[in-house]
Amino acid sequence: MGTHNLQEEELSRSPTSFSSAIYSQLPAVKMTSFDTYNTKTTSISFPWPASVTGLERIALSAQGDLQRVLSAFFAHPITIALVYSHTFTQDSPTASLVPLTLPNHDVIASASPTSPIIQNRQVHLQCNGKIVCTATSSVRITSPECAQLFLEEKYAIGQMFRRLEKVPAFHLLSVGLGEVDGSPTHNPATEKYSKRLFTLGSEKANEQQLWRKYKLIIPDFECEILEVFPSREMFVHGESWLTDAHLANGKRRSRTPESDIDVLDLAVRTSRIQQNLILVIGLGFLLILAFEVSRFKTGTGLHGL
C-alpha cells in the first residue's frame, strides 16, 4: 500500500510548465489514477476511443517499456533512431530556456531542481528497418546522475528507467486517431516553438494513425511524450506488416462480388461457344452422312462415278 500512495503522491504534484505551451493543442486531462489495485484485483480505466482494439490498448498502456512490448509483439528487436534533439538550461525553474551545446560536462554536473536541463527530442522506434512509432518528448532533468546517463551516455528514455531500476509514475493524458497537432520543433532564430501535423500524405493514411500523450515521472527525470503509430494495420498483421506481405495477400484475396460475377459470366460465355461449336460440327457431320446415304441408294455414290 505504501508504494501505491507514493505513486499517487508523485502524480498529484503539479508538473512544471516546461511543456504546457508545447502541447496546448491537445486536451487537458485532470490527473487521475490510470490503474488501481487492491490485494487481489488490478483494474485499468480510461475513456478509450470506441474503435480501439485490445492489442492497441496494450501498446497504449505501456509505461516506459513500449520497446519491450513492441519487440514481443513483432518478435524482432526495436531500435531507437534519433531524429532531432534540442537541449536547454534554465537559471531557475521559471526562467527562459537558454540553448545548450553538448557536450558540456560542467553544466551536466550542475543539474539540479533549481537549474534544470530541458531536452526536446524526437525519435523513431524502428523494427526490421520500418518505423513503428514516432515519439516526440520533452524531458526535464534535475540531477547530474540522470543528466550524465541521458545526455552523455545516450540512454534512451525507456532504457533510463531500466538503468536506474525505477518504475516511473505514469499518467495517460489522451488517446486519439488520425492527425495530431503537438510536435515540438525549435526555431533557433526566434527561440520559440511551433507545431506541425503528423501526416502520412493521404487522408486515408492519416486516418490510420493512432496516437497517445502521456507522462512518465521518477525523481530528477520527468518526461512528457507524444507517440504516433503510423498505421493501425501493424496491430492487425504483426510481422507480415513489416515486410508488406499482408498487401500481397490482400491483393490475392481482394475479390469483389462484381469481379466474381465477371468471372462467372466469362465462364458461361466460353462454355456456350464450345457447345455451339460442337453442335455445328455435329450437324455438319450428319448432313454429310445423309448426303452420302442418299447417293448410295440412288447408285450415284462416290464408288459409282
List keywords for this structure.
alpha+beta, 11 strands, disordered N terminus, Chorismate lyase, two-stranded antiparallel sheet, seven-stranded antiparallel β-sheet, 25% strand, single chain
Q: Can you walk through the features of this model?
A:
The protein is an alpha+beta fold. The protein has two domains: 2-251, 3-Layer(aba) Sandwich (Chorismate lyase); 257-304. The chain is built from eleven helices and eleven strands. The protein has helices at 2-12, 54-60, 66-74, 105-109, 144-152, 157-164, 203-207, 234-237, 239-242, 245-253, 257-298, and strands at residues 35-37, 42-44, 79-89, 98-99, 117-127, 130-141, 169-177, 185-187, 192-194, 210-218, 221-229. The strands form three sheets. The protein has a seven-stranded antiparallel β-sheet. A two-stranded antiparallel ribbon has the order 1-2. It is rod-shaped, with a radius of gyration of 34 Å. The termini are far apart. Mean pLDDT is 80; it is low at 1-32 and 183-202.
Instruction: Kindly provide the name of the CATH class of the largest domain.
Output: Alpha Beta
Considering the protein shown, what is the CATH homologous superfamily of the largest domain?
A: Chorismate lyase-like
Figure out the total of helices.
Answer: 11
SSE pattern: HEEHHEEHEEHHEEEHEEHHHH
Helix fraction bin = 25-40%
The main sheet comes to: 7 strands, antiparallel
Shape: rod-shaped
Q: Which CATH architecture of the largest domain would you pick?
A: 3-Layer(aba) Sandwich
Write down how many β-strands occur, each being a DSSP E stretch of 2 or more residues: 11
